[in-house]
Design a protein that fits this description.
By secondary structure, the chain is an all-alpha fold. It has a single domain, classed as Monooxygenase (Up-down Bundle). It has 3 helices and no strands. It starts with a helix and ends in a 5-residue tail after the last helix.
Length: 101
């Protein structure tokens, strides 16, 4: 492996770890606050484009990295939607529960 490729692999690994950590935090906390519904959709779109571009250039460091990032985006979007539905159900239940005096 060339040292230039090693820099690419290491950078991609670090980026992927940070994205995975964010998705895990989102899953564990069940929170959606501060997250735009467009965040993961934008990430999916960009990663798809970058993956195609990387494959066409035969740059396997970036192709594999972008495929992995694309997968984290799909997982993140799924968790975001799940958390948002759960928050809506909780709010709906609170509206129907009347406080006792």
């Amino acid at each position: 492996m060339k040292s230039v490729e090693l820099i690419g692999w290491a950078s991609s690994f670090i980026l992927l770890l940070t994205l995975i950590r964010q998705v895990l935090t989102q899953w564990q906390t069940g929170a959606t606050a501060g997250l735009s519904k467009w965040l993961f959709l934008g990430q999916i779109t960009a990663s798809t484009g970058y993956t195609i571009y990387s494959v066409l250039l035969h740059n396997w460091v970036y192709a594999s990295s972008n495929i992995a990032i694309l997968l984290t985006a799909f997982i993140g979007e799924g968790i975001y939607l799940r958390n948002r539905r759960a928050a809506r159900r909780t709010m709906a239940r609170r509206r129907w529960v009347t406080p006792r005096a």
